[in-house]
Amino acid sequence: MSVIFTTAEDAENAFYGAIGRGDLEALMSVWADDEEIVCIHPTGQRLTGPAAIRDSWRAIFANNPRLTVHVKRSTRWKSVMLDVHSVVEILYLGDEPKPQGPMLSTNVFQRGPNGWRLLSHHSTTAADDAAAEPGSEPDHSRLRTLH
User: Fold this and answer.
1) Domain enclosing residue 71, as ranges
2) Residue at 53 is within a domain
3) Is the confidence at residue 80, as pLDDT, over 90?
4) Are 71 and 88 in contact (CB under 8 A)?
5) Order of strands, edge to edge, in the sheet holding 46-48?
6) How far apart are CA 65 and CA 38, in angstroms?
7) How far is CA 98 from the centre of its chain?
8) pTM for the whole thing?
9) Is the CB of residue 66 less than 8 Å from the CB of residue 93?
10) Which of 27, 81, 118, 123 is 20 to 30 Å from 7 by CA-CA measure?
11) What's the structural domain count of the chain?
Protein backbone atom coordinates (compact mmCIF):
# COMPACT_ATOMS: atom_id res chain seq x y z
CA MET A 1 0.00 0.00 0.00
CA SER A 2 1.35 3.41 -0.90
CA VAL A 3 1.63 6.33 1.47
CA ILE A 4 -1.37 8.63 1.68
CA PHE A 5 -0.22 12.25 1.62
CA THR A 6 -2.67 14.30 3.66
CA THR A 7 -1.44 17.61 2.23
CA ALA A 8 0.14 18.72 -1.02
CA GLU A 9 3.11 19.91 1.05
CA ASP A 10 3.61 16.36 2.34
CA ALA A 11 3.59 15.07 -1.23
CA GLU A 12 6.04 17.76 -2.34
CA ASN A 13 8.39 17.02 0.57
CA ALA A 14 8.26 13.32 -0.32
CA PHE A 15 9.02 14.15 -3.97
CA TYR A 16 12.14 16.18 -3.16
CA GLY A 17 13.18 13.73 -0.43
CA ALA A 18 13.03 10.87 -2.94
CA ILE A 19 15.18 12.89 -5.35
CA GLY A 20 17.74 13.45 -2.59
CA ARG A 21 17.89 9.72 -1.85
CA GLY A 22 17.83 8.70 -5.51
CA ASP A 23 14.81 6.54 -4.63
CA LEU A 24 12.91 5.91 -7.86
CA GLU A 25 10.11 3.90 -6.22
CA ALA A 26 9.46 6.57 -3.58
CA LEU A 27 9.55 9.27 -6.26
CA MET A 28 7.03 7.44 -8.44
CA SER A 29 4.73 6.83 -5.47
CA VAL A 30 4.17 10.59 -5.23
CA TRP A 31 2.76 10.77 -8.76
CA ALA A 32 -0.95 10.39 -9.48
CA ASP A 33 -2.13 7.05 -10.82
CA ASP A 34 -3.00 8.52 -14.20
CA GLU A 35 -1.71 8.01 -17.72
CA GLU A 36 -1.81 11.79 -18.32
CA ILE A 37 0.74 12.86 -15.68
CA VAL A 38 3.36 15.21 -17.13
CA CYS A 39 6.99 15.93 -16.34
CA ILE A 40 9.00 18.57 -18.17
CA HIS A 41 12.70 18.63 -17.34
CA PRO A 42 14.91 21.67 -18.08
CA THR A 43 15.84 20.05 -21.40
CA GLY A 44 12.33 20.96 -22.53
CA GLN A 45 11.18 17.47 -23.41
CA ARG A 46 7.58 16.83 -22.38
CA LEU A 47 7.15 13.38 -20.85
CA THR A 48 3.64 12.00 -20.48
CA GLY A 49 2.66 8.92 -18.50
CA PRO A 50 4.31 6.94 -15.73
CA ALA A 51 6.57 4.82 -17.96
CA ALA A 52 8.21 7.81 -19.66
CA ILE A 53 8.57 9.69 -16.37
CA ARG A 54 10.02 6.65 -14.60
CA ASP A 55 12.56 6.10 -17.40
CA SER A 56 13.68 9.73 -17.32
CA TRP A 57 14.20 9.76 -13.54
CA ARG A 58 15.98 6.39 -13.72
CA ALA A 59 18.45 7.97 -16.16
CA ILE A 60 18.83 11.08 -14.00
CA PHE A 61 19.61 8.98 -10.91
CA ALA A 62 22.04 6.78 -12.88
CA ASN A 63 24.00 9.87 -14.00
CA ASN A 64 23.72 11.74 -10.68
CA PRO A 65 23.87 9.30 -7.77
CA ARG A 66 23.52 12.14 -5.26
CA LEU A 67 21.29 15.02 -6.16
CA THR A 68 20.10 17.45 -3.48
CA VAL A 69 17.38 20.01 -4.14
CA HIS A 70 16.82 22.99 -1.85
CA VAL A 71 13.44 24.62 -2.44
CA LYS A 72 13.28 28.37 -1.95
CA ARG A 73 10.54 30.90 -2.30
CA SER A 74 7.32 29.00 -2.72
CA THR A 75 4.14 30.63 -3.95
CA ARG A 76 1.09 28.45 -3.72
CA TRP A 77 -2.46 28.52 -5.02
CA LYS A 78 -4.84 26.15 -3.29
CA SER A 79 -8.35 24.86 -3.74
CA VAL A 80 -10.16 21.90 -2.26
CA MET A 81 -8.96 19.49 -4.96
CA LEU A 82 -5.98 21.24 -6.58
CA ASP A 83 -2.78 22.79 -5.24
CA VAL A 84 -0.22 24.56 -7.44
CA HIS A 85 3.28 25.41 -6.15
CA SER A 86 5.71 27.71 -7.94
CA VAL A 87 9.17 27.25 -6.45
CA VAL A 88 12.83 28.07 -7.00
CA GLU A 89 15.01 24.97 -6.86
CA ILE A 90 18.71 25.09 -6.07
CA LEU A 91 20.48 21.87 -7.12
CA TYR A 92 23.62 20.35 -5.62
CA LEU A 93 25.32 17.47 -7.43
CA GLY A 94 27.25 14.99 -5.29
CA ASP A 95 29.86 16.71 -3.11
CA GLU A 96 30.02 19.83 -5.30
CA PRO A 97 29.83 22.87 -3.00
CA LYS A 98 28.72 25.12 -5.85
CA PRO A 99 25.00 24.91 -6.58
CA GLN A 100 23.52 24.32 -10.01
CA GLY A 101 20.61 26.42 -11.11
CA PRO A 102 18.55 28.10 -10.02
CA MET A 103 15.62 26.29 -11.57
CA LEU A 104 12.06 27.56 -11.71
CA SER A 105 9.57 24.78 -11.15
CA THR A 106 5.83 24.38 -11.00
CA ASN A 107 4.35 21.41 -9.18
CA VAL A 108 0.64 20.66 -9.59
CA PHE A 109 -1.03 18.39 -7.04
CA GLN A 110 -4.51 16.88 -7.03
CA ARG A 111 -6.42 15.47 -4.08
CA GLY A 112 -8.07 12.13 -4.67
CA PRO A 113 -9.12 9.00 -2.81
CA ASN A 114 -5.44 8.19 -2.14
CA GLY A 115 -4.56 11.63 -0.79
CA TRP A 116 -2.60 14.32 -2.61
CA ARG A 117 -0.64 13.28 -5.68
CA LEU A 118 1.60 15.01 -8.22
CA LEU A 119 0.00 15.61 -11.63
CA SER A 120 2.70 17.75 -13.20
CA HIS A 121 6.27 18.84 -12.53
CA HIS A 122 7.65 21.46 -14.92
CA SER A 123 11.18 22.72 -14.38
CA THR A 124 13.24 25.20 -16.37
CA THR A 125 16.48 27.09 -15.91
CA ALA A 126 16.28 30.58 -14.44
CA ALA A 127 18.43 33.67 -14.46
CA ASP A 128 21.18 33.42 -11.84
CA ASP A 129 19.66 36.25 -9.83
CA ALA A 130 16.29 34.49 -9.44
CA ALA A 131 17.40 32.94 -6.15
CA ALA A 132 18.79 36.23 -4.86
CA GLU A 133 15.61 38.27 -5.18
CA PRO A 134 14.08 39.71 -2.00
CA GLY A 135 12.07 37.09 -0.17
CA SER A 136 14.18 34.25 -1.53
CA GLU A 137 14.20 32.47 1.82
CA PRO A 138 11.50 29.82 2.23
CA ASP A 139 8.23 31.60 2.83
CA HIS A 140 5.39 29.22 3.46
CA SER A 141 3.03 32.06 4.35
CA ARG A 142 2.53 32.92 0.69
CA LEU A 143 -0.57 30.79 0.23
CA ARG A 144 -3.23 31.72 -2.30
CA THR A 145 -6.68 30.18 -2.61
CA LEU A 146 -8.10 29.26 -6.00
CA HIS A 147 -11.76 30.09 -6.49
Assistant:
1) 8-134
2) yes
3) yes
4) yes
5) 46-48, 38-40, 115-125, 100-112, 82-93, 67-78, 143-145
6) 23
7) 21
8) 0.84
9) yes
10) 123
11) 1
